[in-house]
Amino acid sequence: MIFVSEVMLQQTQAPRVAQKLPDFLEQFPTVHHLAEASTGTIVRAWQGMGYNSRALRLRDAARMIVERFDGMVPSRPEDLRTLPGIGPYASASIACFAYNRRTVVLDVNIRRVYSRWMQRQATTVDVATDHMLQDFAMAIIPPRHPARWHNAVMELGAVICTARAPQCELCPMHSVCPSARRMTEGVRAKKAEPMFRGEPQRLWRGRAVEVLRTRPHGTSITLHALFKATTRTAASEQEMKWFRDLMQKIARDGLIVIEGDLVRLHE
User: Fold this and answer.
1) What is the full per-residue pLDDT of the chain (267 aa) written as tens digits?
2) Beta bridge partners of 199
3) What does 146-206 look like in DSSP terms, one character per residue?
C-alpha cells in the first residue's frame, strides 16, 4: 500500500489519493496483480489521478519487483531507486514508512521545517539546499521510530510551520528555532509552463486521454474528432499541428497508439 500511495502522491493531492487508493488496491491487491495489468487496464484504473504516465511507471516498477525481488518491495533505498519512477524522495519515503528505516525523507513540508530549524531564513519562501538538509536531518532523526518522527514533522509543516503564515507561537520548537517570528513574507516566482487557449498544456493532455479512456476497449477515433471531443470546438490548421505533436508525445510515453490519422488508448 505504501509503495502505491507514494507514487500516487508524487503529483496528486493527498485527499484525492485517499479517495482513490482503496478502489485501486481492491483492483490490484498484490504486486503480482499490478505487474500483470495491461496498459489500458492500468490507465483506466488511474482515472482522475492526472499524469497518466505515472500509472505506467508504477506497473513497470511492479514488473521489475516481481522479476528481480521475488515480488517483495525492496526495503533498501538504493534498490528502490532502480525501479521506474522511484527517485530519491520516494525511495527514502518507502523505506522509512514501509520498513521503518532511518532514512532522510524530504518532502516540501519537511524541507521547509528543517530549513527554518537549521538556520535563520530571511523570508518564508527561503529554504536550504538538500545537501545541507541531508546532513542536518541525519543529526536529528532519532534512531528509533523514524517513521513516527517524519509523520510528526510533516504534520508540523502542514499545520503550524506553514509556507505563508507560520504560527510560531503555537510551535513546540519556537524557543530553539532561529527563524521563529523573524521571517518576512516572501513570494515565490511561478514557473512558466506551455499553454494552449489560456490553460496549461498538461490539462489538455489529460483531457484528451480522458476522452480515449471512456471509449470502448480497442476502438479508435480520428485525431480531428479527438480534438473536437477534447476542446468542444473544431481545430484550425495551426491548432491541429499543435494537437498532433501533443498526441505524439503521449504516444511516446506509451499511453496511446497512433496509426495514421487514428488514435486509441494503448491496450
Assistant:
1) 899 999 999 888 889 999 999 999 999 999 999 999 999 999 999 998 988 999 999 999 999 999 999 999 999 999 999 999 999 999 999 999 999 999 999 999 999 999 999 999 999 999 999 999 999 999 999 999 999 999 999 999 999 999 999 999 999 999 999 999 999 999 888 888 899 999 999 999 999 999 999 999 999 999 999 999 999 999 999 999 999 999 999 999 999 999 999 999 998
2) 196
3) HHHHHHHHHHHHHHTS-SSS--GGG-TTTTT-TTTTTPBP--PPPPP--EETTEEHHHHHH
Domains of the chain: 2-99 (1.10.340.30), 108-170 (1.10.1670.10), 195-265 (1.10.10)
Instruction: State the catalytic residues.
Output: 6
Cell of 40: 489500458
